[in-house]
Amino acid sequence: MANTGDSLPEIQFDKVQPVGGAGAAGVACASCQKPIGDFYFEWGQRPYCAPCKDKTIAAATSGWGGWRLMKAVIFGVIAGGVGALIYWGVGALTGYELGIVAIVVGWLVGVGVKVGSGGRGGWLYQIVAILLTYLAIAWAYGAPMIISVATGEYDLSQLGSLPTDSQPTEMSPLTAIVILLVAVPTLPVLVASQSPMAIIIIGIALWQAWSICRRTQFNFAGPFSVSSPSPPMPPVPSASPSPEQPGA
Predict the structure, then answer these.
(1) What is the pLDDT of residues 214-243, one digit of tens each?
(2) Is the bond preceding residue 163 a cis peptide, omega within 30 degrees?
(3) Per-residue pLDDT tens over the stretch 171-202
(4) Interatomic CA distance for residues 15 and 149, integer angstroms
């Protein structure tokens, strides 16, 4: 075959050469993003260097538990407020009360409490998440009454427990606020008693918040060696000449 003048690269099969990517770059720590030179640990199928492993465990187990709980409550309240506004906003825009949005409220509160706890979680934070999710849903249900009190109308008829001959305009602001604080938390129970589907949706929202705030198990596997040798490649059989056929 004629040579075109361009030299072709020599092809060899007896040595494996890495081709860029993760294999060529080695193992990088999932926390500090620095390459790991000797040993690494795995948690959640992600590699961690030894210092980051120790820092992750120390951050979740050290410090004052009361401060973590306080942050979890603050973050959960903020997330619950955002969720309640979303719930009310969807209803105000669409004209329908979409109970499925309550599941989003549970997710937001669960994430807020988990982040506030430093990713630790546990039964105490699960209880906090459930209570805050319930209250957020209650205040979302009571948003029309809260707006009416804020605008001076004092229309609390949504509670369904006021006397029919009472005049909302004669109610003092303090009385309206006290009624809101006492009666609004009962709204999820009132709604659930009138709609079996509401029971399911509220239950899913509470379960969502509970499951997100489960205690995180810091079960690091390892150590594993970065430079562990790969298994040897099987030898490539050499081509042997075929035997001559008789009579050829």
Answers:
(1) 887 777 877 887 765 444 445 555 544 445
(2) no
(3) 666 776 777 777 778 888 887 788 888 888 88
(4) 80
CA distances from 248 to 79, 203, 242 (A): 87, 86, 13
Nearest of 104, 108, 98 to residue 197 by alpha carbon: 98
Encode the chain in three state secondary structure: CCCCCCCCCCCCCCCCCCCCCHHHHCEECCCCCCEECCEEEEECCEEECHHHHHHHHHHHHCCCHHHHHHHHHHHHHHHHHHHHHHHHHHHHHHCCCCCCHHHHHHHHHHHHHHHHCCCCCCHHHHHHHHHHHHHHHHHHHCHHHHHHHHCCCCCCHHHCCCCCCCCHHHCCHHHHHHHHHHHHHHHHHHHHHHCHHHHHHHHHHHHHHHHHCCCCCCCCEEEEECCCCCCCCCCCCCCCCCCCCCCC
CA distance 136 to 185: 9
Q: State if pTM tops 0.85.
A: no
Q: How many residues does the chain have?
A: 248
Cα–Cα distances in angstroms (integers) from residue 53 to residues 22, 32, 43, 73, 197, in the given order: 21, 10, 9, 27, 45
Pairing state between β 35-36 and 46-48: unpaired
